[in-house]
Amino acid sequence: MMYGYIRVSSTDQNEDRQVTALRGxxxxxxxxxxDKQSGKDFDRPRYKRLxxxxxxGDLLYVHSIDRLGRNYxxxxxxxxxxxxxxxxxxxxxxxxxxxxxxxxxxxxxxIADLVLQILSFxxxxxxxxxxxxxxxxxAAAKAKGxxxxxxxxxxxxxxxxxxxxxxxxxxxxxKALEQSGMSQATFYRRLREYRRRRLD
Length: 200
What we know:
Rossmann fold; 4 strands; alpha/beta; 11% strand
C-alpha cells in the first residue's frame, strides 16, 4: 500500500505542490496524510495515525527529509521506527538517493544511511541558522527602537488627576483603578512610566 505524508506550516504555500507530487506517484487521496502546524507546535496527530497504519512492505512518500522531524535525532529516530521496526519503505521525493527500495544490499543500505545522516544534520543546521538570524533581526530592531507586541493604549486624560488624588490619599486605590479602567498591575506599571516621563 502506498501512503504520502505532508507537513506544512500554517503560512506555507507549497501544500498543493506536495499533494500533486504524491498523486503523481500514484498515492490515492485517501492515503495522503497532512499536518498543519504553526511556530513551535510539533504535535502531529495525522502523522501518528499514519504511522499506526503502516505495515511491513508499505511505501511512504515524503517530500523532504525534514518532514519526519524537527532535528537530527528526531529524523533519525523516525526513520529507524518506520524502516526497521515497522518494516515500511520510505521514498524522499526531493532526494532520490533516499529510497529504501533501492540497493537493499549492504552497500545500498550504507549509502542511504550515510545520506540520511548528512541531510538530517543539514536540516537541523538550517533551522538553527534561521532561528539565529531571527534573533539577530529582533535584537537589531529593538536596538533601533522598534517595539514588539501589542501597542500600548494611551493614558486616559484624567490619569494625572487620578494619580494626584490617589497620592494625596483623597482617592482609595480601588476607586483609582475603576476610574482609570486598569487592573492593579497595569495601574502601577503605567504609574511608573508616568513618573519617569515627569522626571525627564
